């Protein structure tokens, strides 16, 4: 680790101000950033911790019934507080990493990092969530822009995420056995106006929607509706833990299991 | 029933109190006044020529005290291989110099070519980044077959990349070839025994201290083997006289083999301590552990089993390439040869065995003994090909093994691979395993799994291994450059409590609990009054350390011999005190009694008399009560076992779930059943890790892809089943005084083929034409095998 300064603002405004320094780096729960720093793979002059900002903490129900999660809310809190309001989201949050990770890692940190194998991007994209930042609102469909790439500008902070609550949803994860990230994770959400299927862990471009499955499931919300569909292996991640063909195959298997569990 | 705390009692491990309350004393916990920090600069390429190293900028960095490169060690020796192997043509093995720091070339990712000593670790790290090396990258030599065939070399002076080409037993080669040629049935299997990273919980660490007043050195280090480390540094690497070097291995957090060996970092901190005049400390980070701890296994093997149509074995023949990595680690040449080839008859009366093994240099981390060391490789090859043969011949896998087992009345049994097994009862182990497994009900369990959409398989296995490596006379003939005895000193203090100095080193085994159980039982005293001293060359007569499941069988036997000497001397003192002849005394429960009388004296009174020798027959008996024994066994010991594993395989994902695991072992006489159960369970977990999870992968450039816990899969509780163990009816070892065999490795030896046999059985039951999958059987590999079948 290199030496750095740390700031702990208590308001979003102070955080944004601190982040305006070009060598400053936002720190959520640190579940990716701290290991990166320990490896000396990053050298920020200042870390701006977001977890002390009260207005970015907690879960509530919005005016339109959506579940609103503060950007600095940790996974354990999300799991506990959405258990009845949005069980599919709660289930996803409650199975990220291990208890230590869930009590440090934050939803904003996960979405800002946009690891291609992280769980939260699947929930956000699969729910058609809205990412609220200090400057604007971004639809999930516009937010995820590839491997570790998002629509966020430099210094922009995710203050809140709003999840429309579906009629039914389930996240099915096949874990990468070492990291316990998703080797393939599929979030299926059934809304009155359609079905969303978001896939994480599989694609070289990060989280994506499997639109063919969405169409088939909109017509017939059953695992059998996926018969005959397949995901091309092209563009899927191939690594120590699975080939692109294997991941493509798992997308279908996990989607079917998620539908069955809804 | 064992006595409380005596031999055979499941005494709670006394060392656990300090380990579990944070009071252990590990090398990294030790901080001394004025200590400086060492950080190593390591190769990021697998193969490269060091054109130049510019340390000038680093030297100007804050806090820097000294910088070392390979140039600083050209005049000192190299770290040697401990065992000389001769090739089939009689040529001695190729033995490249293994320097303290790389010189001329770097040969694997992580190979250290410079070291920075600074006031603080942070300053040393900062400065290490300023060491500018011009290293011309060469193509990496990774694949063993390609290494033997190619024209690029790990060591320029070894223009074959071959360390040796060994035949065992060469005189049996022609007969074995002929037997296979004429056999009614031959099963052939090509397999990979996957490379493993040892992953001790505690990374390696070393502190060097130099005392200018006495021109002497102290090395505190993470070692399983402090005396050997001292010997190697003294005799081969640094030339420091042994009496000027103390090596202390304090609490060590696991080794599994990786801390048997001497590493260059240990020599570096000693040299640095002298140069800067301050203690120098180095603690590896986890990445360094992955890149530089000696790895395990890494064999590519073709095995043939020739048999009659009724399953009677005629011959085993193997051809193996064994990866030794970039340099020869201390036991890297013994592990694939005399700890592997000699076991290739397994538990069987098979008349013909021949092993050809070529050891190959590659641009990867050195490979050496890792829990089981050669014997897991042997067992895996034998037991996989037997399973395959049984399936081809339509014979039950238990029956084909029973048909060929060495029977109890045949001991001592000389095997076709050159060992003489002293005792065992493999059928009895198999009987017990079958009963514990409830094999008759397996089909019901399989049906239940199928109803849940899963394929279920039962894998079984028999193993025999050789541990307590010995005797010195034999291993010397076979090429060992060290003896393989061990030593113990039993010191009875005046007030009757004891310190027992042992050459074995405990890094998780429980010696501090078990050795006192033995001494306490023999002397009829409370084991709590006996303390074990280990890991300090200045306090212990000598020792060969702990590996190869040898502590109890070899060092424990030395403890017995030393304690017998104590009893003999105490008896003389007691005889004097009781005014009787020593021969007329009985010694039971800590009391010396004149036979047929009620005249007696307690052991404590005798001890006091030894140190306060008033009215003492000083002409006949020396004062004091302290005895040392060196014990050199007559043979290896031969633990054996019968294992079973039941798995479910998910046909949609290929994921294997272990439902049940059963381990029946014969460890001879058991001193502490609880500790033995823990050893078996730990070993089985490591074997399951090898079979299903641990995938050490270098890419073609020699980069270790699985160099962190984000990619290297260690077994976790939720990967594991309940592991049922039994070791209650062992056949005693016939040649050591405890009748003990050795339990540290059986679990890791017996389990990998058991798991793989189970998975193949499951796939076959599900109609998949899969006969073999190389370890680790990850979901992706199982899925690919199912879908190519």
Low-confidence stretches of chain A: none
Low-confidence stretches of chain B: none
Strand content of chain A: 15-25%
The 3D shape of chain B can be described as globular
Count of domain modules of chain B: 3
Q: CATH architecture of the domain at 168-261 in chain A, please?
A: 2-Layer Sandwich
State the CATH superfamily name of the domain at 168-261 in chain A: CO dehydrogenase flavoprotein, C-terminal domain
SSE pattern of chain A: EHEHEEEHHHHHEEHEEEEEHH
- Would you give the CATH topology of the largest domain in chain B? Aldehyde Oxidoreductase, domain 4
Separation, N- and C-terminal Cα atoms of chain A: 44 Å
Shape annotation of chain A: globular
What number is the mean pLDDT of chain B?
A: 96
Brief write-up:
The complex is a heterodimer of chains A (262) and B (789). Chain A is α+β, with helices and mostly antiparallel strands.
List keywords for this structure.
heterodimer, A: 262 residues, alpha+beta, Uridine Diphospho-n-acetylenolpyruvylglucosamine Reductase, domain 2, Enolase-like, domain 1, five-stranded antiparallel sheet, 12 strands, 22% strand, B: 789 residues, Aldehyde Oxidoreductase, domain 4, Aldehyde Oxidoreductase, domain 3, seven-stranded mixed sheet, five-stranded mixed sheet, 19 helices, 28 strands, globular
Overview of the molecule:
The complex is a heterodimer of chains A (262) and B (789). Chain A contains 10 helices and 12 strands. Chain A is α+β, with helices and mostly antiparallel strands. Among the domains of chain A are: 1-49, Uridine Diphospho-n-acetylenolpyruvylglucosamine Reductase, domain 2 (2-Layer Sandwich); 168-261, Enolase-like, domain 1. In chain A, the strands form 3 sheets. Chain A has a 5-stranded antiparallel β-sheet with strand order 4-5-8-6-7. Chain A has a 4-stranded antiparallel β-sheet with strand order 9-10-11-12, with helices on both faces. A 3-stranded parallel β-sheet of chain A has the order 1-3-2, with helices on one face. The longest helix of chain A is centred in the C-terminal third of the chain and has 18 residues, at 244-261. The radius of gyration of chain A is 18 Å and the shape is globular. Chain A starts with a strand and ends with a helix. The radius of gyration of chain B is 27 Å and the shape is globular. The A-B interface holds A 3, 39-40, 174, 177-179, 239-243, 246, 249-250, 253 and B 122, 125, 129, 287, 652-653, 655, 693, 695, 697, 705-706, 709-714, 719, 778-780, 783-784.
């Amino acid at each position: 680790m290199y030496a750095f300064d740390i700031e702990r603002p208590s308001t979003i405004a102070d955080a944004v101000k601190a982040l305006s320094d070009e060598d400053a780096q936002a720190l959520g729960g640190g579940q990716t950033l701290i290991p990166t720093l320990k490896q000396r793979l990053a050298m920020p002059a200042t870390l701006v911790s977001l977890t002390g900002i009260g207005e970015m903490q907690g879960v509530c129900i919005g005016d339109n019934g959506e579940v609103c999660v503060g950007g600095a809310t940790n996974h354990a809190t999300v799991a506990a507080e959405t258990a009845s309001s949005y069980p599919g989201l709660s289930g996803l949050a409650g199975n990220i990493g291990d208890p230590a990770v869930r009590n440090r890692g934050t939803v904003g940190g996960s979405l800002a990092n946009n690891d291609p194998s992280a769980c939260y991007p699947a929930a956000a994209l699969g729910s058609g969530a809205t990412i609220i930042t200090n400057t604007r609102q971004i639809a999930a469909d516009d937010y995820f822009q590839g491997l570790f790439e998002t629509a966020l500008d430099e210094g922009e902070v995710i203050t809140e995420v709003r999840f429309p609550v579906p009629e039914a949803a389930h996240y099915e994860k096949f874990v990468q056995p070492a990291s316990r990230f998703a080797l393939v994770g599929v979030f299926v959400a059934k809304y009155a106006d359609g079905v969303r299927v978001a896939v994480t862990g599989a694609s070289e471009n990060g989280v994506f929607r499997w639109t063919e499955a969405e169409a088939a499931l909109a017509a017939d919300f059953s695992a059998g509706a996926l018969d005959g569909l397949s995901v091309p292996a092209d563009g899927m991640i191939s690594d120590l833990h699975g080939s692109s063909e294997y991941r493509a195959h798992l997308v279908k298997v996990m989607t079917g299991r998620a539908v069955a569990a809804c | 029933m064992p006595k409380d705390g005596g031999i055979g009692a499941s005494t709670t491990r006394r060392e656990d109190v300090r380990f579990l309350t944070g009071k252990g004393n590990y090398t990294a916990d030790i901080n001394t006044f004025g200590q400086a920090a060492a950080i190593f600069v390591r190769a990021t390429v697998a193969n490269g020529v060091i054109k130049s190293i510019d340390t000038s900028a680093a030297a100007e960095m804050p806090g820097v005290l000294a910088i070392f490169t390979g140039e600083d060690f050209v005049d000192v020796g190299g770290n040697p291989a401990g065992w000389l192997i001769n090739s089939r043509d009689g040529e001695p093995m190729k033995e490249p110099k293994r320097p303290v720091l790389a010189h001329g070339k770097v040969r694997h990712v992580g190979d250290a070519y410079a070291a920075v000593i600074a006031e603080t670790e942070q300053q040393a790290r900062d400065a290490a980044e300023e060491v500018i090396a011009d290293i011309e990258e060469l193509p990496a030599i990774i694949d063993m077959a390609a290494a033997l065939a190619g024209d690029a070399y790990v060591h320029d002076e070894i223009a074959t990349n071959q360390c040796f080409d060994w035949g065992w037993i060469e005189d049996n080669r022609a007969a074995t070839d002929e037997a296979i040629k004429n056999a009614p049935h031959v099963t052939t299997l090509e397999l990979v025994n996957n490379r493993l990273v040892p992953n001790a919980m505690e990374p390696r660490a070393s502190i060097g201290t130099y005392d200018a007043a006495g021109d002497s050195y102290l090395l505190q280090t993470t070692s399983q083997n402090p005396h050997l480390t001292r010997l190697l540094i003294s005799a081969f690497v640094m030339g420091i006289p042994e009496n000027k070097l103390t090596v202390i291995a304090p609490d060590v957090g696991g080794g599994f083999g990786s801390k048997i060996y001497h590493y260059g970092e240990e020599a570096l901190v000693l040299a640095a301590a002298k140069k800067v005049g301050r203690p120098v400390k180095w603690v590896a980070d986890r990445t360094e552990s992955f890149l530089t701890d000696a790895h395990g296994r890494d064999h590519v093997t073709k095995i043939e089993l020739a048999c009659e149509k009724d399953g009677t074995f005629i011959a085993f023949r193997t051809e193996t390439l064994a990866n030794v990595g970039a340099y020869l680690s201390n036991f890297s040449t013994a592990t694939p040869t005399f700890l592997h080839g000699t076991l290739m008859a397994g538990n069987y009366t098979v008349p013909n065995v021949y092993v050809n093994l070529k050891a190959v240099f590659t641009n990867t981390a050195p490979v050496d003994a890792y829990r089981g060391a050669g014997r897991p490789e042997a067992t895996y090859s034998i037991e996989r090909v037997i399973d395959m043969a049984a399936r081809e011949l339509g014979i039950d896998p238990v029956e084909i093994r029973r048909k060929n087992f060495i029977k109890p009345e045949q001991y001592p049994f000389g095997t076709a691979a050159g060992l003489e097994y002293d005792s065992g009862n493999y059928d009895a182990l198999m009987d017990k395993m079958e009963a514990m497994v409830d094999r008759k009900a397996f089909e019901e369990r399989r049906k239940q799994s199928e109803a849940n959409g899963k394929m279920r398989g039962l894998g079984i296995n028999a193993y025999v291994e050789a541990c307590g490596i010995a005797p010195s006379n034999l291993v010397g003939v076979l090429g060992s450059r060290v003896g393989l005895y061990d030593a113990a000193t039993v010191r009875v203090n005046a007030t009757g409590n004891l310190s027992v100095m042992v050459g074995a080193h405990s890094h998780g085994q429980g010696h501090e609990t078990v050795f006192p159980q033995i001494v306490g039982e023999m002397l009829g005293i409370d084991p709590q009054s006996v303390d074990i001293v280990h890991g300090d060359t200045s306090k212990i007569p000598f020792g060969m350390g702990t590996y190869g499941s040898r502590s109890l069988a070899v060092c424990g036997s030395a403890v017995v011999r030393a304690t017998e000497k104590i009893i003999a001397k105490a008896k003389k003192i007691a005889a004097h005190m009781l005014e009787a002849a020593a021969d007329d005394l009985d010694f039971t429960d800590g009391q010396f009694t004149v036979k047929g009388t009620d005249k007696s004296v307690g052991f404590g009174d005798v001890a006091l008399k030894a140190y306060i020798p008033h009215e003492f027959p000083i002409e006949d008996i020396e004062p004091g009560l302290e005895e040392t024994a060196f014990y050199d066994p007559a043979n290896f010991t031969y633990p054996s076992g019968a294992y079973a594993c039941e798995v479910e395989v998910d046909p949609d994902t290929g994921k294997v779930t272990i439902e049940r695991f059963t381990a029946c072992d014969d460890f001879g006489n058991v001193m502490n059943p609880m500790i033995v159960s823990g050893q078996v369970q730990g070993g089985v977990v490591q074997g399951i890790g090898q079979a299903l999870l641990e995938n050490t992968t270098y890419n073609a450039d020699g980069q270790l892809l699985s160099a962190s816990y984000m990619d290297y899969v260690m077994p976790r509780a939720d990967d594991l089943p309940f592991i049922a163990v039994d070791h209650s009816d062992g056949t005693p070892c016939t040649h050591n005084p405890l009748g003990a065999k050795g339990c540290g490795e059986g679990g890791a030896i017996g389990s990998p083929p058991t798991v793989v046999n189970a998975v193949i059985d499951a796939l076959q039951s599900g109609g998949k034409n899969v006969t073999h999958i190389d370890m680790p059987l990850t979901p992706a590999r199982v899925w690919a095998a199912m879908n190519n079948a």
